[in-house]
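Run Amino acid ABC transporter substrate-binding protein through structure prediction, thanks.
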Amino acid sequence: MKRIVSTLALGAALGLGATAALAQAPSTLRNVQNKGFVQCGVTQGLAGFSMPDSAGNWTGLDVDLCRAVAAAIFNDPTKVRFSPLSAKDRFTALQSGEIDVLSRNTTWTLQRDTSLGLNFAGINYYDGQGFMVRKSLNVKSARELSGASVCVQTGTTTELNVADFFRANNLKYEPVVFASADETVKAYDSGRCDVFTTDASGLYAERVKLAKPDDHVVLPEIISKEPLGPVVRHGDDQWLDIVKWVHFAMITAEELNITKANLDQMMQSTNPEIRRVLGVEGNGGEALGLTKDWVVRIVRHVGNYAEVFDRNVGPSTRLGISRGLNALWTKGGLQYAPPIR
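Sure, done. The structure for Amino acid ABC transporter substrate-binding protein is below.
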């Protein structure tokens, strides 16, 4: 009996110790508030997603997600700093605490979700891997690429997918591997390989950098699923919730037709869902550790999902990408947000 009591006492003590340890775990939100900005990991330069201009001002779909997080917390989208990271270094930077969130066209996979100590906070762009070739090759399909040399960036799902594609189709190829996206594109543009492969969004983004963009064509095949989204560290559920629901808030705002232009008018709406989303009623923001007007802050400073998509990668931009899978679920796409209630 004494042994049982001792064992129970020990278990209780260990449980209390674990609880105390969790209570003392550092809060990313608190750290961000204390330093006054969000540190966001992005690409080293990918048009439409994260790209600095000559003055060092960053723009892009992934950049705007980070600005939306800053807007929700500080009511100021400029309170974010950007760390340009290679594909190889991006996860280490997040694991080590060098950055608070990774928003760098990163594919959500089982291995990354389970073995790196990281959590994906959503999918802000549904993508798939494709191929780009010179029109002069007169190639109409990726299945005509047997024997081709293929420029690919190492340390990415792209490298694995292209190997699987050629193997599954009994085709031979010569991989020409580079450490960075810029090196890969420059090698393709200089003629060191026949084919350039990456996510389809990346093909359109990189094509605008080529010496003669109109001389190149993206082939029709999509050979993989590439759900791209922001990533945070394991162990801080509040921060995971904030990043996740910031993305959901932009989708919900689009669903309800809440835009930067009509925001003040929408705040006067009698629609109970709109009132709840904008914090006129309820306490959704407080549940996240934010203010009631967190969605108002996001839309006012950054916009809804459609506004972010259209100004960065949409049909009127140089990339000219249609919504496709990234349309709302009500319009044949996959973008769908749980209810804010």
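The two ends are 50 Å apart (CA to CA).
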